[in-house]
Specification:
Layout lengths: L1 H20 L3 H21 L3 H37 L1
Length: 86
């Protein structure tokens, strides 16, 4: 069990570093959602079930999807602005 927790912690650290050093916003958003999911799994393994459910609800679903839809909306607006310039 301790080995699994250490591997999960290592994956969390790698995903956090990937978020920080990512140059593309889409990749950083996906990594953020993965980071939140890994944290929720770790909290579940440490018997923090309520915290794990809150992490899934807030970290993955609300924040991650909100970032995704905002990026999509901005991309659509940028495309319509580019079309109006030509």
């Amino acid at each position: 069990m301790i080995v699994l927790e250490c591997v999960l912690l290592l994956l969390i650290l790698i995903s956090a570093a990937a978020i920080l050093f990512s140059r593309r916003i889409q990749a950083a958003t996906g990594m953020y959602m993965l980071f939140s999911l890994l944290l929720a799994i770790l909290w579940g393994m440490l018997y923090g079930v309520r915290l794990a459910v809150a992490e899934i609800g807030i970290g993955v679903v609300v924040t991650g999807l909100l970032l995704y839809f905002v990026m999509r909306r901005l991309r659509e607006k940028k495309g319509s602005q580019d079309d109006s310039k030509t």
